[in-house]
Amino acid sequence: SSDDDVNFGLTDDEFRSWILNELRIENPGLYDTYPHVFQKASDCITRWRQRYRGNHLLWKRLFKRDRVVKEVIEAIPIVDAVDQWVREQQQHEAT
Which residues contact 73 (CB under 8 A, 6 or more apart)? Predict the structure, then answer.
């Protein structure tokens, strides 16, 4: 899509804001419940983009906005549950 081409020219901060907004628009209710996980997801996708910065063709092949947004939205509650479990385990080990 044209979004996939346009996002490549954005700075990292612009891209992070753009993808966070795309995720939020896709499921505002989920965003309201898990804003911290949405932020983590946008940070992760931005780091993924940084890794492939020098290879525009590979980035275009890997990053399809609709597919990435769909997969991230589906994973948000799972990521939150795993994060919570890890925090609980760390707290348990610290005591």
Answer: 23, 26, 27, 30
The per-residue DSSP string of 19-72 comes to: HHHHHHHH-HHHHHH-HHHHHHHHHHHHHHHHHTTT-HHHHHHH--HHHHHHHH
Measured distance CA(33)–CA(20) in Å, rounded = 15
pLDDT 10s digits, 25-71:
999 999 999 999 999 999 999 999 999 888 888 888 889 999 999 99
Q: How large is the angle between the packed helices 65-94 and 35-51, nearest 10 degrees?
A: 110
**Which two three-digit tokens encode residue 65?**
């906005």
